[in-house]
Each structure stands twice: as structure tokens, then as C-alpha cells.
Amino acid sequence: MPTVNTFIRSHTPGKGSSTVKEFARDFMDHNGDPDRVSLVTCDMSPGFAKGVREHLSHAHRIIDMDWQRCVGRFLRGRVPVR
Questions:
Q1: What is the pLDDT of residue 28?
Q2: Is the CB of residue 19 less than 8 Å from the CB of residue 42?
Q3: Is 14 helix (H, G, I), strand (E, B) or coil?
Q4: Where exactly are the structural domains of the chain?
Q5: Which of the residues in the chain have pLDDT under 50?
Q6: 16 secondary structure, DSSP code
Q7: With the C-alpha atoms ordered 51, 56, 57, 61, is the resulting torsion angle positive or negative?
């Protein structure tokens, strides 16, 4: 089942709170009810989190980090061994 994040990213450009607002408006235009959205996967963007809080208020957020970011953070934190 596709997540709301997939729909937001494919239908509205950007990552700020206005992106989620635009999605919620479009969702309602297509007979959707933003209050019935219960789960949203998203990155750690503060703007996106704010938009979910304000416009999809009943949704729980799951932080979604892609594997490249996880590996990058791991490698940056690694101490070189000689």
C-alpha cells in the first residue's frame, strides 16, 4: 500500500509545510479526509513535520531514512584505524 509520503512527493513539489498543506487541499478536492490519514512516512525535515502536525493532525509520523543516508552518517562518524 502506498504511503501518504509517496503521494505527496509525486503530486506536490517541495518539502516544507506548504507542501503538506497543498496535498491536504488536493486530497479534499478528491473526496479525501485528511483527518482519516493515520500514518505518514517522511524524512526529518522540520518543515515537513510541521505540515504533518498542522494539516494531517491525526497522523503518526515514521521517520524514513534511505539506506544511502544511513551509510553516509555511519561512515562520517567512523574513526579511521591505522
A1: 92
A2: no
A3: coil
A4: 4-77
A5: 1-2
A6: S
A7: negative
Q: Count the helices and strands in the chain (H runs, E runs).
A: 4, 2
Report the alpha-carbon distance of residue 70 to residue 54 in Å, rounded. Answer: 28
pTM score over 0.90: no
Report the DSSP pairing between strands 60-63 and 39-42. Answer: parallel
Please give the C-alpha separations between residue 12 and each of 16, 22, 28, 52, in angstroms, as whole numbers: 10, 7, 14, 14
- pLDDT number for residue 5: 55
The DSSP secondary structure of 49-81, one letter per residue, reads HHHHHHHSTTPEEEE---HHHHHHHHHHHPPP-
Residue 12 has a pLDDT of 64
